[in-house]
Amino acid sequence: MKKLITGLVLLGVVATAVAQKDDSSNDALLSNGGIESLRGKAQLSETRESDKMKRVLKDREVVERNYVHQPPVIPHQIRGYKVDLNSNKCLSCHGWKYAKEVGATKVSPTHFETRDGMTLSDISPRRYFCSQCHVPQVDAKPLVKNEFRAVESLSHK
Question: Cellular component terms, GO, for this chain's entry (predicted)?
Fold first, then answer.
């Protein structure tokens, strides 16, 4: 029995050494095969330079929505806005108390509802962190072809 175990261990050591000797086989596994992905043509084993940050469009008109319950995109810059457990910069304009005087869209009534359907007097904790759903509109070309069509009843065309 000892000879069998010793033989199997020895076989494992030899097989590991042979597998490590051929480094080119690992390169073949990491190769993207010349296919261009969203990363470009960079190989998986390479670290490529990151893309430049997209330019956020300055104070635009409200962007039209394409489906029911679609979170609206943010038509202005939000870099530097503080949104944490203690404060939410977005609510200083979009809160019901201030929206009319600053001319901002006020927070939807759905943001005051809990998961159980109760209506609160303030923003629901599950809707407090705006950037979970709402993102700034940027000047960027589509990464992939988009064949999405808006719901007809929402289309203004």
Answer: periplasmic space
Please tell me the number of Cα atoms within 13 Å of 54 on its side-chain side. 12
pLDDT digit string, tens, across residues 110-146 = 999 999 999 999 999 999 999 999 998 887 788 888 8
Q: How many CB atoms lie within 10 A of CB 102?
A: 10
Residue 133 labelled as part of a binding site: yes
Considering the four listed CATH numbers 1.10.287.40, 1.10.10.60, 2.60.40.1670, 1.10.1130.10, the one that applies to the domain covering 52-157 is 1.10.1130.10
**Does 76 carry a binding-site annotation?**
yes
**113 marked as part of a ligand binding site:** no
Arithmetic mean of pLDDT over the chain: 82
